[in-house]
Specification:
Length: about 100
């Protein structure tokens, strides 16, 4: 079982419901492609290191998930990449210990 961590940065212009829906959609992609979400870490609104799309702040989420096949992370990335509220994302495979 491979373990992954997906960092998602959502636009600060989103309302609470829209942000929750976007996060739910990302988790839906993970489960649809054979992954299991183990933890969702909400860091809240943070200042960006540099301005992105004329925004100085954004909402940070870190989603840990497990998947049998490596296709899951690739498929999730492909779908998250085109989501409108996502301004940045990064999916990394965690080392086995």
């Amino acid at each position: 079982m491979n373990k992954y961590e997906l960092a998602v940065v959502l636009s600060a212009k989103l309302e609470d419901e829209e942000r929750a829906a976007a996060l739910e959609k990302v988790q839906g992609y993970i489960t649809r492609f054979g992954g299991t979400v183990t933890n969702v870490d909400d860091w809240g609104k943070k200042r960006l290191a540099y301005e992105i799309q004329k925004m100085k702040e954004a909402f940070y989420y870190f989603i840990k998930f497990e998947a049998e096949n490596s296709d899951c992370s690739n498929e999730v990335e492909a779908h998250v990449r085109i989501m409108e509220p996502v301004i940045r994302y990064l999916c990394v495979k965690q080392d086995e210990q």
